[in-house]
Design a protein that fits this description.
This protein has one domain. The chain is mainly α. The chain has nine helices and no strands. The protein is elongated, with a radius of gyration of 17 Å.
Length: about 170
């Protein structure tokens, strides 16, 4: 495994650990962001039941996002040739385009990995990478939503915003 791959694995593992540790902070932040976004965008017909459904979708997306960073599952992203095809398909199926963001993440990891990885500096470099590029694919989700807001995109957007605030 290359040094860049090792650093990317540490990046995902660090994100997983941060989000697992802060998981209880996400629901109240999500509720606040969701209510604010509904009010700002003027989405119509948001009764209690519809709000609850969107809140529940956001909370389910939290678990999905945290598991996406899980070090047990992340091995499939880096260790299997089919994983590349699966990742490409995921990029095509998402309503946001995260390909450029992923390329920027890999390039940032590559530049940091050139400094030489050791057991002692792997975690600090992963922390630096998170500070530099944030949590993939949040930037893509946020910018695509802000360019064209919509109810279908709302849960992903709210979760991305909450994650970004939590990891900051």
């Amino acid at each position: 495994m290359s040094e860049t791959s090792l650093l990317l694995r540490a990046y995902y593992e660090t994100l997983y650990e941060r989000l697992e540790a802060a998981k209880n902070l996400l629901p109240p932040r999500i509720e606040k962001l969701l209510a604010e976004e509904i009010a700002v965008r003027g989405f119509e017909d948001f009764d209690e039941a519809k709000y609850a459904a969107y809140r529940d979708a956001c909370l389910a997306f939290v678990d999905e996002r945290i598991e996406a960073y899980n070090p047990i599952g992340i091995q499939y992203l880096f260790d299997r040739t089919r994983a590349k095809d699966a990742f490409e398909l995921e990029l095509q199926l998402n309503w946001y385009n995260s390909k450029a963001e992923f390329e920027a993440l890999v390039e940032a990891a590559r530049s940091k990995a050139k400094t030489g990885l050791t057991e002692e500096n792997l975690r600090p470099l992963a922390e630096e990478l998170i500070e530099q590029v944030r949590a993939f694919p949040d930037n893509s989700i946020i910018s695509a939503y802000e360019a064209q807001p919509g109810l279908r995109k709302l849960p992903d957007y709210v979760v991305a915003r909450a994650i970004e605030e939590i990891i900051a």
